[in-house]
């Protein structure tokens, strides 16, 4: 009688040991299903808020159950771990070619600046597709430590045979450029403020360094490259330096009370001065193939990540993440993951629409100019359920 009891005991122990694995697999399947449902909700309602996602839950008669499902999903620890796997697969999808362009920038996530976002993205079709998002407390925004951690995570995503060009704005300084160069990658940035520069072949003395703003008089609407330069007197950095002044766009913000007059608000004047300021574009010395004009075009693609941030945060033009009441960084990270997957699905649908000619349905007039981003076209196609079939042009 004792032998069967031992067999039963072993079987019982084995079945108990298998329960966590079974639960993990089941939970992973449920999490993936809920992520897909949330992604469809973001595409359908264009808002990344918890309640709006629950309201657009597929085949749900009430909001309560989907709201609980979304709440559990945002706190799913397994999904936090699996997020790196998703980022890795996305990177292999998006990083095509030996030297792709990756745009990197900071952005506030909350009006009170309690949380901020450091994002790496690939510019495609008028917007960007996210490679990596890192949410950090607002007090760490722009800190070298956070940027170093971000670079380490980005390095783990990029394939070994890829040497990307990282494009940043004037907020990224010499320590960032040196860290990127140490990884064997190239960089493109911008100089603003009182940063001092000098030619490389000139002796390193105080009277040889000049304020970079004195170079603005050399700017024109044709990109001009100076001889090899050094930037930042306290820690000299070898670089290529290109000067360029954008053509005036003719835009002005009107006064609310007197629409015929231009606004004199401090924010408007500051924005106007910023747009009039010439570009002092710096690039790594190893980046020799692009011409001065090509470097300007590479840097100009950085604007696409600003448009993506507006699409993400604005309740008027985008997905209203600035209105979300989520206060924990881990939950914000999952919301951003859902947004990334929804944008990726919209991009794929948009590519299909552009290839088959369906994108012309969204255009109010016949035009050779692209009126809408690929992501916008794809989202409209998914919401309107357009058939992905070639359109006759006869």
UniProtKB/TrEMBL annotation:
Gene Ontology MF annotations: DNA binding; transposase activity
Domain Transposase IS4-like: 99-338
Pfam families: DDE_Tnp_1
BP-aspect Gene Ontology terms: DNA transposition
Annotated InterPro entries: IS4-like_transpos, RNaseH-like_sf, Transposase_11
Domain of life where this protein originates: Bacteria
Record-linked PANTHER family: TRANSPOSASE OF TN10
NCBIfam families: transpos_IS4_2 (NF033591)
Protein name: IS1481 transposase
Organism listed in the record: Xanthomonas campestris pv. campestris (strain B100)
């Amino acid at each position: 009688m004792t032998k069967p009891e031992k067999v039963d005991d072993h079987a019982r122990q084995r079945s108990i040991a298998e329960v966590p694995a079974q639960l993990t697999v089941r939970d992973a399947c449920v999490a993936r299903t809920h992520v897909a449902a949330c992604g469809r909700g973001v595409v359908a309602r264009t808002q990344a808020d918890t309640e709006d996602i629950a309201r657009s839950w597929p085949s749900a008669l009430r909001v309560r159950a989907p709201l609980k499902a979304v709440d559990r999903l945002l706190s799913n620890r397994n999904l936090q771990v699996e997020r790196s796997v998703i980022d890795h697969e996305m990177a292999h999808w998006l990083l095509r070619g030996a030297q792709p362009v990756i745009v990197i920038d900071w952005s506030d996530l909350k009006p009170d600046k309690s949380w901020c976002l450091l994002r790496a993205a690939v510019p495609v079709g008028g917007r960007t597709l996210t490679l990596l998002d890192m949410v950090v407390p607002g007090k760490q925004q722009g800190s070298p430590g956070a940027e170093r951690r971000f670079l380490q995570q980005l390095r783990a995503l990029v394939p070994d045979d890829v040497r990307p060009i990282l494009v940043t704005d004037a907020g990224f300084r010499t320590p960032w450029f040196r860290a990127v160069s140490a990884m064997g990658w190239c960089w493109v940035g911008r100089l603003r403020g009182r940063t001092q520069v000098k030619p490389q072949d000139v002796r390193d003395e105080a009277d040889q360094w000049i304020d970079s703003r004195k170079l603005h008089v050399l700017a024109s609407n044709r990109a001009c490259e100076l001889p090899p330069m050094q930037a930042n007197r306290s820690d000299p950095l070898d670089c290529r330096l290109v000067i360029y002044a954008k053509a005036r766009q003719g835009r002005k913000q009107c006064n609310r009370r007197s629409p015929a007059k231009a606004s004199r608000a401090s924010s408007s004047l500051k924005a106007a001065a910023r747009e009039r300021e010439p570009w002092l574009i710096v690039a790594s010395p190893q980046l020799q193939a692009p011409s001065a004009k090509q470097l300007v075009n590479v840097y100009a693609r950085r604007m696409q990540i600003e448009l993506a941030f507006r699409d993400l945060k604005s309740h008027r033009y985008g997905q209203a993440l600035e209105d979300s009441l989520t206060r924990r960084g881990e939950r914000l990270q999952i919301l951003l993951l859902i947004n990334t997957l929804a944008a990726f699905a919209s991009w794929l649908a948009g590519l299909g629409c552009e290839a088959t000619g369906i994108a012309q349905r969204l255009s109010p007039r016949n035009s050779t100019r692209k009126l809408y981003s690929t992501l916008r076209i794809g989202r409209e196609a998914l919401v309107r359920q357009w058939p992905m079939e070639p359109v006759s042009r006869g």
